[in-house]
Write a structure and sequence with these properties.
The chain is an alpha+beta fold. It has a single domain, classed as TolA/TonB C-terminal domain (2-Layer Sandwich), CATH 3.30.2420. The chain has three helices and five strands; from the N terminus they run H-E-H-E-E-H-E-E. A hairpin with a 2-residue loop joins strand 4 and strand 5. The chain starts with a helix and ends with a strand. The N terminus is likely disordered. Keywords: Signal. It comes from Flavobacterium erciyesense. InterPro entries: TonB_C.
Length: 132
């Protein structure tokens, strides 16, 4: 009898903890880009994304400036970018300029996990080269 009760308790406990998180509690979860089931996507694809960056990014007026800018951000469930932080830049205000341009982007198609849109961590890499 004791073994039957213990087995029943174990099965009930396992079922309670193995259930998926309800949608209403998924709102604040942040899922890494590599783990999200459906990746976020910029309208028109990455070629369109980098075209937008190229048209709007104002390169600092420095001689022989070259390098990369990396911006960490979150693609929200509504497709907007938030929490933009400069991880790496080439100086001369390039990180701030990258954030300014990213703030102007149209909405992305958000990432999805378990069939629901989710907040997805993401990073953007922009290569800068100036030969002035």
């Amino acid at each position: 009898m004791k073994n039957s009760i213990l087995l029943l308790l174990l099965i009930v406990t396992t079922n309670l903890f193995s259930q998926e998180t309800p949608k209403e509690t998924q709102d604040d979860f942040l899922i890494d880009y590599s783990e999200v089931q459906v990746k976020p996507e910029f309208p028109g694809g990455m070629k369109s994304f980098y075209s937008f960056i190229a048209k709007n990014f104002i390169t600092p007026e420095e001689v022989n400036l070259a390098g990369k800018i990396i911006i960490d951000c979150i693609i929200e469930k509504d497709g907007t970018l938030s929490n933009m932080k400069v991880r790496e830049d080439v100086g001369h205000g390039s990180g701030d300029e990258a954030i300014r341009v990213l703030s102007k982007l149209p909405k992305w198609r958000p990432g999805q996990h378990n069939g629901y849109p989710v907040r997805t961590s993401y990073f953007v890499k922009i290569h800068v080269e100036s030969s002035r």
